[in-house]
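Aim 2, interim progress: modelling of the zinc ion-bound target.
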Amino acid sequence: MIICEKCFCDTEIISVIKNKSVIGDCPLCKSKNVYLYDTEKFDDLSMMFDDLLSIYTPVSLLPQSFPKADTRLLKSELIYNWNIFNKKTEADVYNIITAICKEKYEYNAELFDQPVGIQELYDSDYLSKHSLLTTNSWEDFVEALKTRNRFHTHYVDLDLLERFCSYIRKPYKTGEVFYRCRISTEVGIPVTEMGAPPIDKTTDGRANARGIRCLYLGDTAETTIYETRAGAYDYVTVGKFQLKKDIIVVDLKKINQISPFIEGLDCLEYAINKEHLNKINDEMGKIMRRSDSPLDYVPTQYITDFVKSIIHDGNPEYAGIEYKSVMHNGGYNLALFDPDLFECIETEVYAIETIDYKKHIV
Ligand SMILES: [Zn+2]
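Predicted structure of the complex, ligand included:
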């Protein structure tokens, strides 16, 4: 079977296909002039998929106690739980994986044709050693953090969290530009006052507790204007910020999209933590209302403080975290632990004309 780089969205797989240096048209997705991979000629992808598929057990071999509701066909599991294929139907995925893993399919067809499950998801011994939250749920962790112990909780396996962070590192080079917006007057705010507020003016935020300075920036002027939640007829000042030195941040937008094929990644450990990692992603992207308590920021503040505490060779490893914008679809924000890493180089004043309110009765 011939497949191509465009049939996938997993970066590790795409790079394996590109390395084969075969260019042509893809009979499956009809992309023209792309890198191709012939499953009859190469077996690199079969080795990669063998590893991932080995975490699954067909329903006929799962223990009686395994909840049947938590099993599903491999083709659906690969589509809905992993970010591997680019816009493929279940039938396409079935054809692709049985072609890639043809040997495995010959002696273990049940794996591809029967519902499958991950046995370790219900193995408390395994979970206590490999789950980010040991045997607790994300809700248990949030509750404990809010109401029982804020600074010394034992709910999170921090070594594991550090390891997951290392898979979503994102470097930025000196000169990179981001934006910050503040509600102002028609006159605007001078560049010298566009940075993070002084310590006594800090409030609780997604990535900082009150009293801790943090510089929040957005990828575009538009994202920051949305994030400010300016009202109609307000004036806002948008500052353009430039990075003063090379940095590495943790890209939390990607925390639930780590490639299972990264070298050294334990697929099984990653798979059983996917649910927790999804929760971290949801929590970072949760909409906060004016009526919400600052306590609702505590879980993300905990994660951010931990990222900030990671040290490598005596120096902080990460300069900040990046997360998707709740207010502006497709946009993202950067929270910097050291507000002096960026310099505001110019500002522009905007008048907000209209706001498009969409609503529903609750
Ligand atoms: Zn293709």
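The pocket of zinc ion is lined by residues 3-4, 6-7, 26, 28-29, 31 (CB under 6 Å). The chain has a mean pLDDT of 93.
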